Amino acid sequence: MTESESGRPHVPVLLDAILERVAPVRGVWLDGTMGAGGYTRGLLDAGADRVIGLDRDPLAHQMAREWADERVELVKGVFSEMDEVATDLDGVVLDLGVSSMQLDRPDRGFSFMRDGPLDMRMGDEGPTAADLVNNAPEGQLADILFRYGEERAARRIARAIVRRRATARFETTLDLAETVAANLPRPKPGQSHPATRSFQAIRIAVNDEFGELARGLSAAERALKPGGWLAVVSFHSVEDRAVKRFLAARSDAGGGGSRHAPEREARAPAFVTVGKAVAPSPEEVANNPRARSARLRLARRTDAPAGEVSRRALGLPDPVEGL
């Protein structure tokens, strides 16, 4: 456990559940979303010989210099390219949530509760949220809000953003949050902030999170050795559904057939799934409320050739044109 910039302890979600199910931990693992290093250190403590800590965030690497030893190889990059970093891995772990150290720092621009520059990038490259909000056509903004945030008032909010930016650019998170909130009904007690869906949608677009997930799952399949473990922790139902569909597709041996469905061509499955999705225990949620929506899915690689599953087959929203 480490502390984020806010002073809150950073707690890796469902770490014990992963370690329990993949025991004995050994060989070389890749932590595709290293962040504060909770999974990396947990894997090393459990017996991994070496862990490759992969993250696009320079802050993660800056923090790792304080705790990483010779068993940790730090690599700056995205997990969708992990198979260019290493292959023949004994395990891959991915945490698809936004890390506490990003959410808790106003200067990263993820929060609609605390003011900061409108950034939202998980790394230090590419357009910021301000670039997107201030330059995207109205129709593209509406598509982003609807597809990635399931925001029913997407067109109304997009229209308001375009009207407002004609007089002054959006520069800060609270500036955008107030514009979104002004165009939605006042929330009732207990409801989430009106800007929640819009901020989620813009963050997903800025970081190409759905594209990264689709490519990353296939990259993990290429990077794992036969018998290697894939462990994915998701916090969003769309992401969990994508992981579930990927593993179902890649663990399917074909065959079957009935009077209701034709027989499918037999094939060698690339994964063997391990149990159903694992939810955090009540004790874990009590200690770490951010774990409450987490789901863990596990699978073990076979020696079948790697393949691909399309983004649409994973149930992920289509990319927004022009992004």
UniProtKB/TrEMBL annotation:
Keyword NADP: no
Region: Disordered, residue numbers: 278-323
EC number: 2.1.1.199
GO BP term, pick one: methylation
Entries under InterPro entries matching the protein: RsmH, SAM-dep_MeTrfase_MraW_recog, SAM-dependent_MTases_sf
UniProt-listed NCBIfam families: 16S rRNA (cytosine(1402)-N(4))-methyltransferase RsmH
Protein name in UniProt: Ribosomal RNA small subunit methyltransferase H
Organism of origin: Jannaschia ovalis
Gene name for this UniProt entry: rsmH
